[in-house]
Design brief:
single chain, 346 residues, alpha+beta, Rossmann fold, 2 domains, five-stranded parallel β-sheet, globular
């Protein structure tokens, strides 16, 4: 169902208040061709109601000649801010940037965050934003999970389908996504609700089996038949199976970049208001697929870059794959059992 303007403005009010926006603060709104006009309009009204100063910075899209998809995450690295020092300076001078464009996995984003500016990404359709308005409870749930992951030495994911993946940890920080930005220099994504980190370089090993119903992103498709991935020394070295494996192989090969196959972030979903089935209810160009990434109990792993946490890999190829029915353990403590978050971690 469509969301009313009133409800969307109220959603923005809640997110902005959780993000500690106050009267007199400077908020920049980063937009581009695909920015949803209703999301933008509601954000402006909510900011005006809070007494914030605002500026809209609208930039042309890039990478059309390189990307195989219109999805904002289908080709990373180069952004509309690349070689645009004037726009970067304006964003650094802001207390908060509302990213309605998708500025991810880029040196410009790191540079802006280092200045103390907060960045909140919000690019899902208005109806999804309204359904998944973040709360303090979301934050508390994610912070509890982070307490388990921080300082841990290893993570393991297994499943009846055949997954048995071992992930040494400790080299990279834990990232908490709960949907708002309440600290200087913090980035987050509305909607979200999950915990993640990156495995130690060269350490991930084992086997990943994508079963029927698991999800490939940015393809935004449900796996129809099993796909088996071999992981050695931190890289996926083989992807085998039927049509889904063929499609994934060709897509990744198109980047001609060995780093595309490196294990990237790993973690699990903690958002009870997100749903595995939602992806099937939207046109592929309507959604970024955040329900799939955040739904409670998934094991979310990815391939590609690690520059978001200080690593050296900045490949433009990034694949996110949320798996169902996995058991995930951290230092032998089970946090997800067959796709269900253990009660003391919920």
């Amino acid at each position: 169902m469509a969301v009313s303007d009133y409800q969307l403005i109220q959603a923005w009010n809640q997110v902005l208040k959780l993000s500690k926006v106050e009267k007199g603060q400077m908020v920049s709104i980063l937009t581009s061709t695909n920015t949803h006009p209703r999301t933008l309009a509601a954000a402006k009204i909510a900011l005006a109601g809070l007494g914030a100063h605002m500026a809209q910075i609208d930039l042309p899209p890039v990478n059309a000649e390189l990307s195989l998809s219109r999805d904002a995450l289908a080709y990373l690295g180069t952004t509309p801010l690349t070689d645009n020092p004037a726009a970067i300076a304006a964003l650094k001078a802001s207390d908060l940037v509302l990213d309605l464009m998708t500025l991810l996995f880029s040196p410009e984003q790191h540079d802006i965050l280092k200045s103390g500016t907060k960045i909140l990404l919000a690019v899902e359709p208005p109806e999804i934003l309204a359904r998944l308005v973040p709360t303090e409870e979301d934050r508390a749930r994610v912070v509890r999970a982070a307490g388990i992951l921080e300082g841990a030495g290893s993570m393991r994911a297994v499943s009846d389908a055949g997954t048995d993946l071992v992930l040494p940890l400790g080299q990279y920080p834990v990232v908490k996504e709960y949907g708002f930005v309440d600290e200087p220099g913090r980035w987050d994504h509305w909607p979200s609700g999950f915990i993640l980190t990156w495995p130690n370089e060269g350490g991930a090993h084992g086997k990943i089996v994508l079963d029927r119903g698991d999800i490939l992103l940015p393809m935004k498709s449900y796996v129809a038949q099993p796909v088996e991935m071999t992981v050695q020394n931190g890289f996926v070295t083989k992807i085998e199976g039927g049509l889904d494996a063929d499609l994934l192989n060709e897509y990744m090969e198109s980047f001609d970049d060995p780093d595309a196959y490196a294990m990237s972030h790993v973690g699990w979903g903690l958002q009870p208001r997100a749903y595995w089935s939602t992806l099937g209810l939207y046109d592929k160009e309507q959604t970024l697929g955040m329900d799939a990434r955040a739904y409670e109990g998934n094991f979310l792993f990815s391939m590609g870059p690690n520059n978001e946490v200080g690593g050296s890999r900045a490949t433009p190829c990034h694949i996110d794959i949320p798996l169902r029915q996995c058991t995930v353990s951290v230092d032998d403590k089970v946090v997800v059992r067959k796709g269900v978050v253990c009660q003391d971690e919920a």
